[in-house]
Amino acid sequence: MRKLNFSLLFGCAILVSFNPKKRLTDLPPDPAKPNIVLIFMDDMGYGDPVCYGGGPYQTPNIDKLAHNGIRFTNFYSAQAVCTASRSALLTGCYPTRIGISGAINHTSKIALNLNEETIPELLKRAGYKTGMVGKWHLGHKEPYLPLQHGFDEYLGIPYSNDMWPVHYDGKPWTDTSSFRSTYPQLPLIEGNKPIEFIRTLEDQATLTRRFTERANQFIKANKKSPFFLYLAHPMVHVPIAASEQFRGKSKGGLFGDVMEEVDWSIGSIMQTLQENKLLENTLIIFTSDNGPWLTFGNHAGNTSGLREGKGTAWEGGVKVPCIMSWKGKLPEGIVSNQLTTTMDILPTLVKFCSAPSPSQKIDGINLSEMLLGRSKESGRKEFVYYYDKNNLKAIRNERFKLVFPANSQTYGPPAFPNLNGFPGKYGTDSVKLALYDLWTDPGEDRDVQQLYPEAVNELNQRADYYRRTLGDGLTQTPGLEVRPAGAM
């Protein structure tokens, strides 16, 4: 981190004290406090960006971000579902630790507890301006909206873009026997209040551009202060929709069109940072909340051959793309296979931004030494795969993954996907105890527990630790360190 020039700071202090018209916001940003742009995609699979094997569409801006930074190949979302994964990102905790699970909707009785300390809250204490644009999904009304969790401003939707009274064909839902008919219109919220409603697929098609423009406005308005921008795109979660500028233009159908518009968004953000001379003092993080929703077939992404997808504890559900870039600070063109997670972002930003650490226990690990090239290792030795309410489905160390007996949703036979925005059917798989060598078998095809009994024993012992501390629904074990969710 660059040392401060104290004589220069002292001179600036004198100038401010003797010039009452000189506002604090007119001073140049503190070079010791980098800006943060955190871009969080929805349901973007590990294999969706071209630099991770995606196509036949193009993602030149995402690929350029990877070329100019670090591309992670062993990066995990904390859970394979929306609300849980977002709570982990913002708090640095396994969702089970903070009482969060699933994907909440307008009837939910829980939300992210106001006692949990989030990234924007911690960075605000260090003098940051904080803004959020896009999908929230941690509580759909006051006092659990973004402004109550540390953001200075917010424009976005309160939960997933498919939580609305609209059929898969884009027409209003008329079947009153379906739970979908009970959804209210999808609100677009400014601050704490709805300002309009997303009623049609054409409305959905405006979201990527609209949220990008608002993100750019935030950057320009706060360029003289250190800032944290959280851009949580609703795409590529179904229903997918692209604006007229991108519709029908890719070689990958509508999904490809949406990917190319999202890629445009990343390029637009980068251009705004460059035009405002902010690139050299901005850490950009690009990642996803979980894997693709494969039941939607050609409206879903891909996992590059990983097993299953969203809604499962298999690799395709939780291994996601992640790119970090900071011009002149982080190494460029690096591919990292170190075990890392979204929970590690909070303690890493706290370090980079000289912000206070959370007062309560978290599960994230500070990655700053690895990111700066001072260490070859991330420091993370294991990761636990929770799903359902708090079922411990699996645990991995740097090499092996131990999967525990349980029922699992599956996209395989007899399930099958559907096309053009309509969901297919799920299946149920009875999972048996198995050990997978993720170094040689990332697709989780070959059970090697008989070859490595010591790995089974070691991972079982570590799993017992998590059962005691975070709980486990499969063994009916209450967690000693679990904190309650907020009650709506």
UniProtKB/TrEMBL annotation:
Matches recorded under Pfam families: Sulfatase (PF00884), Sulfatase_C (PF14707)
Species assigned in the record: Flavihumibacter fluminis
InterPro entries attached to this UniProt entry: Alkaline_phosphatase_core_sf, Sulfatase, Sulfatase_CS, Sulfatase_N
Keywords recorded for this protein, A-Z: Calcium, Hydrolase, Metal-binding
Keyword Metal-binding set for record: yes
Signal peptide: none
Name of the protein described by the UniProt record: Sulfatase
Family: Belongs to the sulfatase family.
Origin: domain of life: Bacteria
CDD domains (alphabetical): GALNS_like (cd16026)
Gene3D superfamilies linked to this entry: 3.30.1120.10, Alkaline Phosphatase, subunit A
Domain Sulfatase N-terminal: 34-351
PROSITE patterns: SULFATASE_2
